[in-house]
């Protein structure tokens, strides 16, 4: 068997699996190949609903998404804010989201991410992949990864103040890190 026919067979198998995974959205969105929703679309799933349909907590994305797009045939997605968004979590991690982020979504896996970065020491590194492994989420910056309990992501952070603000009042939430699972690749 040639490598091109083997690649075609593999691609066909991946697409078939993907179509099974996105079938919940096929019944709730139009039959075109791209689902597009805005914050005003009350009858369409939100970007946060989309995350949960793929077994991710909604808190992976900050509040304020204005619209999103999903290409169901390959899982490519785009999420849009009015501007960029940044915040700190417990003073340890600084995160930045560009006005548009994108990547590929499948069950328990976000890959090819662009537009999301984390400050590690003095460097800003792009988060390129997020994988759910049971009750933990593993974030990869390419050369290293770290795992965090999924409970850290049940609530959406707010641009500017993260998880430390509610109606202008500060509150303390402990962002847990599983230090034993920080690794270099």
TrEMBL record:
Which positions carry the signal peptide feature in this UniProt record? 1-28
Q: Which InterPro entries does UniProt cross-reference here?
A: At5g01610-like, DUF538
Q: Write the protein's name.
A: Uncharacterized protein
Keywords carried by this UniProt record: Signal
Superkingdom per UniProt:
Eukaryota
Alphabetical list of SUPFAM superfamilies matching this protein: At5g01610-like
Family annotation (Pfam families): DUF538
Name the Gene3D superfamilies on file: At5g01610-like
